[in-house]
Amino acid sequence: MSMKKNVVILNRLAQDLVERLANNFNVTQLQPGADLAQTLTGPVHGVIGAGRQLGPAELAGASELEVISTISVGYDNYDLDYLNERGVLLTNTPDVLTETTADLAFTLMLTAARRIVELDNWLRAGNWRAGLGSDYFGCDVHGKTLGILGLGNIGAAIARRGRFGFGMQVLYTANSRKPDLEQELGAQYRELDALLAESDFLCVVVPLSERTRKLIGQRELGLMKSSAILVNIARGQIIDEAALVEALQQGQIRAAGLDVFEREPLSESPLFALNNVVAVPHIGSATHETRRAMAELAVCNLELALQGDTPLHMVNPQVRER
Ligand code: 8YV
Fold first, then answer.
1. CB contact at 8 A, 253 and 228
2. Protein residue with least CA distance to atom 8, ligand 1
3. Looking at 282, 291, 296, 320, which residue is catalytic?
4. How confident is the model at residue 193 (pLDDT cuts 50, 70, 90)?
5. Residue 281, preceding bond cis, omega within 30 degrees?
6. CA distance to 19, 46, 77, 183, per residue, from 31 (Å)
7. Could you count the other beta carbons within 10 Å of the beta carbon of residue 4?
8. Ligand 1 atom closest to Cα of 285?
């Protein structure tokens, strides 16, 4: 009989998934308030979870570590160079969250354009005594120009909604041209500056990397239309938040819909004082169905990796070739 491998669960996981893991592995749940590095010290073979930075400081003591299974598509929380050096596999959960995240991007576009939150608050405050003046009108979404910054899977799902649901013209920028999507969506490629200048709605959907950190700053915001609406469902650090606050305060752009922020969790921000901001607490994938699918996929990835099989989605498959 072979020894069971050890798995640490960093987040709350559905009970049936914990039990499924416990069938094959010795499972430890990170306790609230417990020290992460200490919990990961010793013969830990697999880690599953999300929303935490994992690098040398946290992982140095996990000398047997084989795999980290993140319950997310993004992997900017992980020190990939370090994992590669150590030969630790990182798996993630793309695809299952694509449509849900695109739904949220559209929610933010529509909510910001039609001033839903502002007017909901206005209504509840008892202000609706006469007809609504044009001061409270929003702007159209249908028929406008939709700019996608990062035409990957999620970007394409947003673009489809815009093209086929709202008759929008789609522009995009990406690392490479996407002839198939250009064909399907009539999407046109633009360099970043042209994308900024032409978009009525700009959706930020690029992964966070050293290349995209603060990609949108004062200069870039200055290139946007004063009527434009900026939506960020990617990572907060892609936008210089102080510059964004200033642009929104000064009416340099019309509004912003934000799912992500430079620092998370966020309990205080100058953004909260602005009527032309719709802000939600990183809920891109936060539906019951999608979070379940992500957790199942992450469990699956972890099991496959620890059994020596090929996980469904690997960020750094090259570590297995050694
Ligand atoms: C995750 C996300 O839920 O998948 C991603 O990259 O941003 C979200 O879907 C989040 O990272 C978990 O903390």
1. yes
2. 72
3. 282
4. very high
5. no
6. 17, 17, 20, 50
7. 14
8. 9
Is residue 284 one of the residues assigned to a domain? no
Residues 104 and 70 in one domain: no
| Dist. CA 108–CA 278, nearest whole Å | 7
Q: What are the b/e assignments for 82-107, b being 16+ CB within 10 Å?
A: ebbebebbbbbbbebbbbbbbbbbbb
The secondary structure of 116-142 as a DSSP string is: HHHHHHHHHTT--SSPPPGGG-----T
- 235-284 pLDDT per residue, tens: 999 999 999 999 999 999 999 999 999 999 999 999 999 999 999 999 99
CATH code at 220? 3.40.50.720
What's phi and psi for 177, nearest 5 deg? Answer: -65, 150
Instruction: Match 């603060």 to its residue by tokens.
Output: 214
pTM, to two decimals: 0.97
In a domain, 260, yes or no: yes
Domain around 274: 98-279
In the sheet with 5-9, reading across from the earlier edge strand, the strands are 25-29, 5-9, 46-49, 67-70, 89-91
Task: Domain count for the chain, please give it.
Answer: 2
320 Cα to the center of ligand 1, angstroms: 25
Q: How confident is residue 1, by pLDDT bands cut at 50, 70 and 90?
A: low
